[in-house]
Design brief:
single chain; Aldehyde Oxidoreductase, domain 3; 147 residues
Length: 147
C-alpha cells in the first residue's frame, strides 16, 4: 500500500444510505473477507446556549486533509491485518440526522475490524483539518469544537 497518491475522500453534502449500501454490496465478491465494521458519523441536533443545531457546514484544507486521511490509512494497514478500508467525509451543509463521516474496514478476522475502526476514527478526530460551523435553527452559527 506504500507510495499511493492520496485519494480525495470528500463528498459534497451528506453521505447517502444508497452510497453506503452500495459500498457494502460491492464487497460480496471479496470472499477472503470474514468481517466488516462501519462507523457512521451523524450530525446531532445538539442544544447549545438555548439554540438547536439544524446543520453543520463542513470545510477543510482539502489537500492537507486528504494527506492526513492517507497517512491514517497507511498507518492502519501497517498496524492491522486489513483487506480494505474506505473513508468518506462530507463538505458543505449536512443537516441534523444526516451522515457526515463513513468509515468502512474489512478483514479476514472480526477482532481486527473493531480495533482498527476505533484507531482510525480517533486519528481522524485528532489529526485531520476538517472544520464544522454549527448552523442553528435561527440561521445563526458557531464554529464547532471537536469532541
Amino acid at each position: 500500500m506504500k507510495d499511493k497518491k492520496p485519494k480525495n475522500v470528500f463528498r459534497e453534502g451528506p453521505i447517502s444510505s444508497d452510497f453506503i449500501g452500495n459500498s457494502i454490496y460491492k464487497h460480496q465478491t471479496k470472499t477472503s473477507i470474514g468481517a466488516h465494521n462501519i462507523f457512521l458519523g451523524q450530525v446531532r441536533a445538539d442544544e447549545i446556549d438555548g439554540k438547536t443545531v439544524a446543520a453543520i457546514d463542513y470545510t477543510a484544507y482539502e489537500d492537507m486533509a486528504n494527506q492526513k486521511f492517507h497517512d491514517i490509512r497507511e498507518s492502519a494497514f501497517e498496524k492491522f491485518e486489513l483487506t480494505c478500508m474506505h473513508i468518506y467525509h462530507s463538505l458543505g451543509r449536512v443537516n441534523a440526522g444526516e451522515i457526515c463521516l463513513f468509515v468502512f474496514v474489512s478483514s479476514p478476522r472480526r477482532k481486527v475490524v473493531f480495533e482498527a475502526l476505533e484507531y482510525i476514527v480517533e486519528a481522524i478526530k485528532a489529526d485531520v483539518p476538517v472544520f464544522g460551523k454549527e448552523i442553528f435553527e435561527d440561521e445563526t452559527h458557531k464554529w464547532k469544537v471537536n469532541n
